[in-house]
Amino acid sequence: MPQNPLISRRERLVSARLCVLVDGGSSVAACAEQVAAIAAAGAGLIQLRDKSLDDATLLERAIAAVGAARRHGALVVINDRPDIAVAAAADGVHLGAGDLPVLAARRVVGSARLIGRTAHCFAEATAAMADAADYLGIGPCFPSDTKTFASFAPRDFLQAVAAEIALPAFAIGGITPQRLPELAALGLTRVAVAAGVTKAPDPAAAVAAFHDALSRTS
Amino acid sequence: MPQNPLISRRERLVSARLCVLVDGGSSVAACAEQVAAIAAAGAGLIQLRDKSLDDATLLERAIAAVGAARRHGALVVINDRPDIAVAAAADGVHLGAGDLPVLAARRVVGSARLIGRTAHCFAEATAAMADAADYLGIGPCFPSDTKTFASFAPRDFLQAVAAEIALPAFAIGGITPQRLPELAALGLTRVAVAAGVTKAPDPAAAVAAFHDALSRTS
User: Fold this and answer.
1) Is the domain covering A5-215 a CATH 3.90.180.10 domain?
2) What are the residue ranges spanned by the domains of chain B?
3) What sections of chain B are H helices per DSSP?
4) Which residues 104-133 of A have a C-beta within 8 angstroms of B?
């Protein structure tokens, strides 16, 4: 459904249970098409993450992604780059290790945009909350077919975030619909997925499968 | 001399005739020390340019550079990254090919910060002026001992920028004090230098040598 301007970004963030990470695609049109399909299928949060593009090209893809997502009520955050988020009128930025600190990014994006932060341990999660990040990405949770992880997030860390950190937390890393009950048992009801959606034969069907499985865990 | 807060960034930019490009150095202290030496010697504009550092480290170096330069009245711009410029409270950003467009960067840095733009042809220079860039970098002008250039800026382009573009224009690429009369004959009285200062045995003396030569060409 189209975005309702009376519902704030933070309200929509709280409603989002599936974050899909997309790259910039092979063209502006391909990027817009992919994002539109994923947003129309109901993903509430889309993260544009592409370290292979130069800044001018990344901005073009970001603008296309924001336009496509907005028509379907989905939020778009830009990985790493608060400046691209502002220039593309995106909904926020996602920060990982080595990126700008949350407080520095806040100076750039202002108070109305979202800042997500990857946390690999409880201290990083509490620091992100203290710095007024808007949401967390936590993981990696499971082995993945498309990415090799050096280590996995301890289950007591995932559980502690769910129990004690008052921010939406998206579990990431090797997430499949089949693994959602295990996460739900830890208290985690939001997930972030990349290839599990974007490289699926039918990305919209993959989004629907995640949503179906998420609805059965809440 | 220390920065006078009653003199705007654009007034100080117009006064600047030497821009020195520095990298982030081996530590925050090394970065601050280098920038302080160059600023104390009288360079009016310092560009921090370091593609090897992660964003968090680049921000730390940028904050150090801004503090060191400000004590001596020099401006600091950050290469490529309007977000780092804002987060470090720098004076502006310098944009090259593939970076964000000037108008996009303006959304990030606001109207009070400077935006510099590299131009390799007259069309790029006029576009930068139309987009309200604050200054130009034009070149590469001469062969350099430290960098290999595929081609050089045509002399009629350099001359046309000096004559027709109402923005401060810094000639860059292989600039030495000995080459300033040739640039002055084209109408160019501002230069940007990297290794010619930073790799000199005495960077402060190199700045002084450039200023001395610049004063003889105006």
Assistant:
1) no
2) 5-215
3) 9-15, 28-40, 55-70, 82-87, 102-109, 122-130, 155-164, 180-185, 195-198, 203-217
4) 104-105, 107-108
